[in-house]
Amino acid sequence: MESLSKGTVSLSQPVLLTPDVVKPRLHKLLILDVQNPKYATSTIPKARRLNVDILLKDIPKTQPILLTCLDGRLSFAAAKQLLKSGFRPVYVLKGGVLGWRQAGYTVQRISYSA
To answer: What pLDDT, on the 0 to 100 scale, is given for residue 39?
Structure first.
């Protein structure tokens, strides 16, 4: 798959992508939401919750991954860990769910089963 950003994909650092770059490419990415389930209320479309909806061991290491969280900080840290584990390419949604919403895109509510 071609690089989603203008430059090349980094092998050591996550690549930050803006919501406007991500939106038309949602179908090419596995979107993982790494928000703390105690506090998460919304996420971007197609997002799956890591270790809730999908396990890391079930993801091919060559699957393009976009990580998101509330504001991007937690997803950036998680992306570094994925890179250390050999996953490539790994992207981070700049600004997280808040940035996505601020760009004017819709979010979906997260519901947890008790």
So the answer is: 84
